[in-house]
Specification:
This protein is globular. Helix content is 36%, strand content 27%. Helix 2 packs across helix 3. It has one domain. With 91 residues, the chain is α/β, with parallel strands linked by helices. It contains 3 helices and 4 strands; from the N terminus they run H-E-H-E-H-E-E.
Amino acid sequence: MDNEIINKVSEGAKMWAVLIDPDKAILETLPELCTSINMSSCDYVLVGGSLINGDKFESCITIMKSYLKKRLSFFLEIMFKYHQKQMRFCF
């Protein structure tokens, strides 16, 4: 995905993304949100936040992977308990 973004930027292409914070997302309404995102013209769906609750994060990702037709991308700095870690995933 990094190369894709770099290529688009170098071509002067405009892009936009939706950012979803799993800790603030309402799991019950996530399928509806994913449907709206699928109908949108957004280029990327980013998932991240400053603090991540492991259980809710996992539930959020599971729901989103079931409903989204767009690729999920994660590039975030998160804090698990008191340890800072940088994580990056692409699906």
